[in-house]
Amino acid sequence: MHATLLGVLGLALLGALHAQDNVPVQTDFQQDKLTGKWYSIGLASNSNWFKEKKNLMKMCTTVISITADGNLEVTSTYPKGDQCEKRNSLYTKTEQPGRFSYTSPRWGSKHDIRVVETNYEEYALVATQISKNTGSSTMVLLYSRTKELSPERLERFTQFSREQGLTDEEILILPQTGESSQWER
Question: How many angstroms from the chain centroid is the CA of residue 84?
């Protein structure tokens, strides 16, 4: 029984790793064109924190800039109650353009981040495989340069999220916040 359980867990882990290997990265990725302000339009995840917080989530802004050593500084500002919070992350570039790694100082989780597709001026679809000692999860983000995106782009986000094994309950188009919110600055 114990050997069977270990075998099943091993196959599940191998399947998750294999699935991430099949996640494409934007062809001819141009990092400098990804910089600037983005809105988080869609978020999909099979993580426990997403399931717990899904009904509280709202659209946020993310500003991407390139550091002196060529990594990405990613600053997200999001509403939390009647205040706003900022979260800074440093995405370290890998040998593959469009693919980055990040380790959460707070949780110790390791993130394999891939810019799946983008036209730089309208949208960016980003997939992340998150690994920590309690297991792994998948997250897909849809960024837009504006607060609204075409139904075709929204459908592509939903379709891609499903291809990553996420269910419709794990896919969310984020509600907009008010125009006068201080977090948009």
Answer: 20
E strands in 94-154: 99-103, 110-118, 123-132, 135-144
pLDDT mean over 92-105: 96
- Go through 126-158 and write b for each residue having 16 or more CB atoms within 10 A of its CB, e for each that does not: bbbbbbeeeebbbbbbbbbeeeebeeebbebbb
Report the catalytic residues: 60
Q: Which position has the token pair 């509403």?
A: 79
What is the phi/psi pair of residue 111, to 5°?
-120, 125
Rg of the chain in Å (alpha carbons): 17
Query: What domains does the chain contain, in order, with CATH numbers?
Result: 31-173 (2.40.128.20)
Task: Note if the pTM is more than 0.70.
Answer: yes
Region 48-62 average pLDDT = 91
User: So what's the pLDDT on residue 19?
Assistant: 44
